[in-house]
């Protein structure tokens, strides 16, 4: 989830909420559907995926996330010194190194080449000039009606409203089908032309993201003339004809006519998807070839690994492979204790709050088993939480786009800040009540079938108390000017009754404790619900539910260790948790988007959002655990490489997102295909950077 500040200085459009006019007079036509209960902010957008980039593989006793978050262990210095000395060996040593090259190394380099090739291919297929959206003849100009000076932007269409009603002035109101319980907004006024037989025309841009509801009222008599729902296509040209129908009954008809067909906005995504499928097929075929001895031997002879290393080092520099970006150099003879086998599938989700909990438990268990004292571990937990919070506040703070950062405008909550607080609470909770992991008891009849839960009853009690606090504050805290227990978006939601109640108690607590200037200024609810107050989706109250979600991840980690080497028991428990959390979500939401007791909402981090995402997390673990850890059919590539440097990749993306080659000036800033091309290239470059750092054994730990 990106919370970057949308500034004109960066070339981005800042959605400016229009003035909220008075709602139109009561409709005399069909009954309105706008009498449902309130809804949380930004209900128009389905909940996105969690903030950090999802890396690949799973752990086995200590995940890569756990190492980075808890131990800070570095590669063996002696081993790395031998690796550097290979470049100065004689020809015989080079031949031996080349002959010992394995298939995984070749596949990794081939993957990097394929990623760059995919970026080039995407750019070639989606770049201007070869655009599938516009042909030489069918290319509609953005200002289809130049006389009316309507310039269309992304996700907009041109609507020409023709008023053929004699002596009648029309007011056109607009609303989005996705804007739940919203009041109508004035779109345009269309006056009578004053000349019989000659219609008056007004041109206006309408949104194409969702279906539109248009209501036309007689301006003078303030009564509804007609009402219709229509889904406009991007950059299409439409006419709305309002006229009398003489069929024995004096009726008014409102018909939509397509003057020029819209473009296919989904075509660039389809092209990118096909490229992705082609990459997967190519990588799978390459791995199959590398598994053949004859082909492997031929490749080994054709590639001189020593020469490749020399070229890379001469061009890119050769940083010390024993040094990480976040720590001191260790003595040359020191090498960390060998870690247990990794559960690769856990890494596949690293970066999400859920899997952070799994990593905390797995890594902490490994550290305690090596004899580290709890007091020392507490210090490490506090220090790393502090670093995460500082990085989020002072390095990736979105308010930098307003100029030099000052305390008067600094945003206090944020993605890394929430991760830091969540990590601290969950890690300390597990450390305080840590117990030795019981030995495998597959052959013992007296084993508890729920020992992963029974042994953690103090932690569960604490989590239930936290959740009770969230429920109590959310539904019983009095909020000035707002109904108690309000979960809606404010703005024009709920027919505009509570414009300054965005987020209910969650928004009120943030504004009360942190101040309006220290929280996010451009919430997603402002786009659809035209909200005017600041609201932070990473606020204080939502952090409680992120802690709950991380603890559910801890539960997944306990299942992996408590039932180690018992694949059937692990899969049964993943299935049980998936179904249990899914049933809770069904009960809370009533299987609806807006009608449930607690609707799913990411901006609020509602408990139904947490149970739903956790249910899916257990489901994906259920699928990937046998594929990655048991059968070894997939190693997690290419997500594995960003996963080994997830903090570096995330911070690097936030800092350098506006720099070339991750971003450049687009030929058409309102084109989906050009934005998609830019994002594909940027993603491929970050994967390539992560791959190079992994091969160089350069890791940024905190």
TrEMBL record:
Residues 1-88 are annotated as: Disordered. Keywords: Membrane, Transmembrane, Transmembrane helix. It comes from the Eukaryota. Signal peptide: none annotated. Residues 15-27, 38-57 have a biased composition (Pro residues). Residues 77-87 have a biased composition (Basic and acidic residues). The chain crosses the membrane at residues 269-290, 349-369, 381-400, 420-438, 459-479, 540-563, 570-592, 604-627, 639-656, 676-694. PANTHER family: HEPARAN-ALPHA-GLUCOSAMINIDE N-ACETYLTRANSFERASE (PTHR31061:SF37), LD22376P (PTHR31061). This is Heparan-alpha-glucosaminide N-acetyltransferase. It comes from Felis catus (Cat). The lineage of its organism: Eukaryota, Metazoa, Chordata, Craniata, Vertebrata.
